[in-house]
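Sorry to interrupt, but I need a hand with the structure work. Could you write out one complete protein record for me, on any chain you like? Just paste the record in under my message, thanks.

. . .
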Amino acid sequence: MPPAIPIATYRLQLSADFDFDAAVSVVPYLKALGITHLYASPFMRARKGSAHGYDVIDHAQFNPELGGEAGFERLSAMLRQHDLGLILDFVPNHVGVHFDDNPWWLDMLEWGPASPHAASFDIDWEQLPYRARGGVLLPIIGSSYGQALENGEIELRYDAGEGSFSAWYFEHRLPIAPERYGEILRMIVKEAGAEESASGRAMLAPASRYQGPRRPNRKEAPAFKAELKGITGAAEIIAHGLAAYRAGPDRAAATLALHHLLERQHYKLGHWRLASSDINYRRFFDINTLAGLRIEDTGTFEAIHRLVKRLIAEEKLAGLRLDHIDGLRDPVQYFQRLRRLIRDGFGGRSRPFYVVVEKILGEHEKLPPFSGVHGTTGYEWLNAITHVLTDGSGLEPLDEIWRQISNLSPKLEPILREAKRRVLETLLTSEFTVLTRLLARIASGHYSTRDYSADSLRQALELYVLHFPVYRTYLTASGPSAHDRQLIAGTIERARADWFAADDGIFDFLSDALTMDLIKPGRTHHSAPRVRRFALKMQQFTGPMMAKSLEDTTFYRYHRLLALNEVGGDPAARAVSVDDFHGMMEARAREWPHGMTATATHDTKRGEDARARILALSEIPGEWTGTVARWKLLNAPHLSVDGDLRAPSAAFEYMLYQALVGAWQPDDASFVDRMQEYALKAAREGKQETSWLNPHAPYETGVKGFIAKILDPSLSGEFLNSLQTLAQRLSLLGALNSLSQITLKSTIPGVPDFYQGTELWDFSLVDPDNRRPVDFAERAGRLGAVENPDWDRLVEKWPSGHLKLAWTRHLLKLRTEFADTFTSGDYEPLEVSGPRRDHFIAFARRRGRDAAIVVVTRWFAPFTDGGRHWPGPENYDAALNVGGYAMEGFADADAAQLRLSDLLMHLPVAVLKARYNGAATPAPRRRRG
């Protein structure tokens, strides 16, 4: 049996091109590498052609494109054979919608609020204006609705196999409400001239039988459809009679007939741009084809977890990674239910089951203690590692160059606030409108607050959102925690300070609505259901709001040091001192020792080794400043300038230079294309000169041309020579940073997670670049060649990546040998002394008498002549205090101090076996970035 707490996990991205059987072939390699748990991307039935699996359309089925249940069983058997566990990336918060493949969504479109699946979707049915009945907006039309209708792009069709009618807009199926079948059949029979035929009369019979509003109802409709399907000749009459609804040019009557029919459905068709302002179903972020689930609904929870529960019962699932928990209405309730489901899956027995959550924590924010949760997927620890490896003395010069190039302050807050405004005005306007209307209804529901106008409430709520500092609160139906109450109060005060109109208590009212104090016993009689809905729905909104504003906008506007622009990170952050890092790890060992530690995921903004290269710029800021100034002069002729247009902008050009040195692979034939695709995505995400909603073709063409020209040796030889020279040095510094990075990942408290392919150098850009195929056969072959590593030989060939692979395997071998020590052991900082002490991070992991001593080097520029050669141990002028430990492999095993030049003979990192003999001397507190 694999251990309950993984020793190491390995993320695989499953798709039609890498299915269950492909994963089967990789299992022996993962076992040899030292992995204990395969961590799979979502494998429930997803939209056909899905490259990632997050657009699930049926949680109760295996994805047939991955091989279905038979393919899963083969993978499960192979995992069991090699004693590996399986962790599933599970998507509880949303499903793929539109098109013709989600049975719940199609049923909801057909029956509206009467559908048993309507409760699973978060729809504000009464929001659509100018309609006699409620409905859901479907923003699927590529042109205007009227244009699509008049062009005949929307068709009414009959499914003879079901006896049902649907409108179709290209690949989108739009079921017609059965209560309209009678009028459709009467019109069709008349159009076909079949009123007197036997088939025609038979078709009109059920139409006459089910009269009255909302008939046939849900109970009667199956019989109606079966009767229609069974009428001989009905299909032929319908095929002819559908001309009555065949809209198109010069077919005004049919066009109007189809329009009137569509207007009497449970949905309203609209241009795709309406989504940002008028959509009335909760989405996953701003993606129209992913609809939020009301997982708080008991039936919905049970239905989407049915397969998970079965796999737990069959002992084929060892853990879950839960996607986007910020989208859950009440995470506390969800995890309590999930824990009961897991226990029931084990037949009522309490057994270990590994659960981690995708949760991005703000600075100084702590994960709430959810029931049964072991921690997060590790973005906060990714950033902690990055920040402790950053040379803090280089950040101030980088601030200055960014100030000069961008003409902006290095402060992040104004840029983030402006990004939030842009997102509110464009991408998430509709969700915000739902909230403001609900707040206005609450206010108007009592005489004491009815004078707060809808416009004033909207402005006040907007200020609250702009000043809200983290992703979300965690209110339950019973109210907020003390921490959440403090968070709301602080945000209210910052918003109030930004308010220039008369207050009149509007912020007190907003605060009481957000905390649900408005419905406390003894308070004024506001609608309790509406207040609860507003407060809980608000915390589902602030998460996507922050994500779209920070990760998907600000990160592409603020380019002071791209290595810090990472998911869960702060682009304006300062470096973390060694002592602060130790404090963070000691706290983690106490509070969350079993969460994941990641250095790359499918969502990170760049590959872990590209980030490590860019990080090295903090060590050579002066040289970088001069080099960029030279590059700007050399590449000025390649800019596209037309009036006020400059492509790329000065700030974007600076970003490109950092991205280039991070991803530089001159031997990659696809490198220019990859950089152009990355630049297009980065420019659109930044939402300044261009965007996804409003692409600016001249700017995008200019950026693409700029990249092509500066990477063309015939046009930019001098620049490319300079780039190659600096990139070679940064590659060495980055490789050394990477060794330190994976050593920390594998030895600090937590479970190290390895993203597919990153055991060799990974210089990927943001997705989809980081989802390119991985050559596992090559890696398996290389792993066999480093069975008994010759470290000096591997150092000589470090560009090949063999060194990283061998060191990864070595680290995982040690983790396996000392599993209890690394899984549950204490974290103890160790003192480093000497002139170079600030260049080292040292600590012990200890459980009982077993211990491992870890030493990691940082800030390599002085040891390598700025990246020109591999560091020699003779330069490590420092000593490690190991009092209380007996070191294995040293002649003087009980020495109180060891020279780092002896410990780091082969590599600038070391993990050494030791025995604990007593209390070690605590490290003195010193603070230097």
Summary: The chain has a mean pLDDT of 95. The first strand starts at residue 9 and ends at 12.
